[in-house]
Write a structure and sequence with these properties.
The complex is a heterodimer of chains A (about 220) and B (about 220). Chain A is built from 6 helices and 14 strands. By secondary structure, chain A is of the alpha/beta class. The two termini of chain A are about 25 Å apart. In chain A, the strands form 3 sheets. In chain A, strands 1-14-12-9-2-3-4-5 form an 8-stranded parallel β-sheet. In chain A, strands 6-8-7 form a 3-stranded antiparallel β-sheet. With about 220 residues, chain B is α/β, with parallel strands linked by helices. In chain B, helix 2 crosses helix 3. The longest helix of chain B has 10 residues, at about 10-20. Classes of the chains: A alpha/beta (about 220), B alpha/beta (about 220).
């Protein structure tokens, strides 16, 4: 019997090892897997590469992980927020590696990894600083930049409902990066509000099929 | 006769942009000034607002007691969903943008060049935290790019420039600029002023390249 639901958040997150690459779902607070991030902080894993749309707020969640200097590199589209001072200080003092990626390229590169593509040509960023040194190509009269996939060892995401096979449905704009990050990580760990029996999520409403999910934890 | 005091207010600019958004258009309003346009979309026209974080058919802000932290816009403010609206993930949302399905995107800008280059994500200042969000994707992806900005910087320099000095968001992407002093079309023949709140000669004097009077 397949059962991806887990009781102990600590045990699941203890599998996260030093030097791993971790995708964190969420756009602002919507879809942010808050409890999983807290668990990651408690796990002690360090020297991490983090992929997220932002770079943390205040001193909680991702910002707390940054503050403990456990992140060597962050890949994101929009670190600057009114309360992103933890990241700001690390960046200015050169204590963190940072790759700035346009939001659509971030999504496309994650999707490329999840769907087994070697690389993608994207129009975004052509002729800008963010395409500097990258290969370009004209295709059907439009200019494109070569970008490589972004994959991860772990994805920590938040969904709304799951069943024991790991099928997921989401809620409103909390969906954001969840479904694509789930496809691009070796071990996708999901926190959900509800675990329901098989068959209860309408198959037409399953946004992430369980094949992409390893662990489900009800919070 | 117009004069300098006749400059349009931000609400008048937003109202003017809203007039050019047609029924049935799929529209993305950038963070900041462009958000104001939503207030002036006439109720008798059906326009679908897109938000990068996965909404089509975005509605106005909710009543304080109806705020849902899982229903926000790209500026991370609470919003609502219109009947018939939909949610989708970031991959689909940006596919929609890059795939040229969004009819109009309204963005703010630091500078726009005479050939339609846009600079709106970084002033290139040392120690500034670089952040780009979805600006570059929107600038290359939407069918039409409208810019809303003041014509002059706080120091009185023209934000319409021969060549952008700030880092570019995208090249040759801007179609129309709605400013407090004039509305300008970026065309292959040059930059055409299609409406002006100040005398044309005065506008030309402030601008570092030749404008075409087209009103």
């Amino acid at each position: 019997m397949i059962d991806k639901t887990k009781e102990g958040l600590e045990e699941v997150l203890s599998k996260i090892y030093d030097d791993s690459t971790i995708m964190l779902g969420g756009f602002g607070l919507a879809g942010q897997p808050t409890e999983l991030i807290d668990g990651l902080i408690n796990s002690g894993a360090k020297n991490l590469t983090i992929i997220n749309n932002n770079a943390g707020n205040g001193e909680i969640g991702l910002a707390a992980l940054l503050k403990q200097k456990r992140v060597k590199k962050i890949i994101c589209s929009f670190p600057r927020q009114s309360d992103s001072y933890v990241f700001d200080e690390l960046y200015i003092s050169g204590e963190i590696e940072f790759e700035l990626v346009p939001q659509g390229n971030l999504a496309a590169r994650i999707q490329a990894a999840g769907s087994g593509l070697g690389a993608i040509f994207v129009p975004t960023g052509y002729g800008t600083l963010l395409a500097k040194g990258k290969e370009t190509r004209e295709i059907n009269g439009r200019q494109y930049v070569l970008e490589y996939p972004i994959s991860a060892d772990f994805a920590l995401i938040k969904a709304y409902k799951a069943d024991r096979w790991g099928n997921l449905s989401y809620r409103k704009t909390a969906r954001n990066f969840g479904p694509i990050m789930a496809t691009a990580a070796k071990n996708t760990i999901v926190q959900v509000k509800e675990i329901v029996p098989l068959g209860e999520i309408d198959p037409e409403h399953i946004i992430t099929p369980g094949i992409y999910v390893k662990n489900v934890i009800k919070i | 006769m117009n004069n300098f005091q006749n400059r349009w207010t931000r609400d008048e600019m937003a109202q003017r942009v809203a007039q050019d958004i047609y029924e049935g258009a799929y529209v993305n309003l950038g963070i900041g000034l462009p958000t104001k346009v939503a207030n002036y979309l006439p109720a008798d026209k059906e326009v679908l607002l897109h938000s990068e974080n996965g909404i089509l058919g975005m509605g106005p802000s909710p009543e304080p007691d109806k705020i849902d932290p899982e229903l926000i816009n790209a500026g991370k403010e609470p919003v609502t969903l219109l009947e018939g609206g939909s949610f989708f993930h970031h991959g689909d949302s940006f596919g929609m943008i890059r795939g040229k399905h969004i009819d109009i995107c309204v963005l703010g800008a630091f500078q726009v060049s005479k050939n339609g280059d846009l600079a709106n994500w970084s002033t290139g200042a040392p120690n500034a935290i670089p952040a780009v969000g979805g600006a570059m994707d929107l600038a290359v992806g939407a069918k039409k790019i409208f810019v809303m900005m003041d014509y002059l910087t706080k120091k009185g320099e023209s934000k319409m420039v021969s060549e952008c000095t700030y880092p570019l968001t995208a090249i040759n992407c801007v179609d129309r600029v709605y400013s407090d002093m004039a509305i300008l079309d970026i065309t292959n023949e040059g930059v055409k002023v299609i409406q002006s709140a100040v005398p044309f000669e005065q506008l030309q004097e402030m601008t570092p390249f030749e404008l075409i009077k087209a009103y």
